[in-house]
Amino acid sequence: MVTSNRFRQFWPFLALLALFAVSAVLFPAVRDNAASFLEGAFGGRRNFNFYSTLSRASLIIGMAMSVLVSFRAGLINIGGEGQLVLGGLTAALVGAYLDAPPLVVWPVALFAAMLAGSLWAMLAGWFDRIAGVPLVVGSLLLNYPAVLFASYMVSHPFRDIASGITQSHRIARELRLPRFEATLLDYGIYLIVLVIVLVIFFERRSVFGYRLRMQGFSLPFARSSGFPVGRIYFQTLAISGAIAGVVGFIAVFGINHRYVDGMLVLPLYSWTGVIAVLLAGMVSWLVPLTGLFFAALGTGAVGIERAADIPREAAQIIQALIILFAAGIGHGLISRNTKGDG
Prior knowledge:
By secondary structure, this protein is mainly alpha-helical. The protein has a domain at 46-270. It has helices spanning 2-26, 28-42, 48-72, 80-97, 102-129, 135-141, 143-155, 188-205, 207-217, 219-224, 229-256, 269-279, 287-308, 313-338. The longest helix is centred in the middle third of the chain and has 28 residues, at 102-129.
């Protein structure tokens, strides 16, 4: 019975993969396009596309782990985009203006990015607990001032005017995260792997993780058991925001080497992370796989466009259909985790 319930949590993802596999076997046209897709996502010269997929996946998975932490506690924090943007902006400013060696700049920029993400997430919690604004509403609305504030900062006071683009100054070459040879993948992926391991470990093997999960399953039970529900509430938001800040740091120091207006918003890293969590049924070890799937969907679409003249926007249509499908899953998960919270 327990095994059946666990399987039911992530059967949608397995069913989706099975659908693609069966279609590729039965229909030659699908098989040819699938080959182009796989080449675009995982092939290329010296597996260049594979490393590109991993680079995109690292950001999606990072945001997915951020979402997972808050969802596990029954907190519908969908303000990851604002937390990500402020974390990335803070890291970019530290990298551009702190005159110090890499071993000093990296931890300072990382800590500053995590702090910015944490404080912004906790602000949404403050609005919920003090002002009565539901977390799902407050966290969503706080995305807009965060994005607009970052846009203003790189459009006026910290703009690299010589570049002619709304972006911050580029960080020095020696401060950038190293990349794997002849690829776009940087060493920031090690940070994401560390985040994955820590989240899974603390969720399953720590007292805090147990309390977090119990609070997510039933807030009345957690309260009657004497759990410090208020402290757990804000600690969870702080951790969730901090992880988003880590992703912002990686995007700046490993990929773009500066903050460019819209660079963390247009790729939909945060929202794709939400869907990756829902598609995984909030199973922590499965979230990296669904994150990788969505990353491959984006990079593989380029290969299909070259081979079959199918616009890469088709991948966005597929993702939209998955979102509709996952929305039903998410409704059930959220209803289950918040039942009786009153």
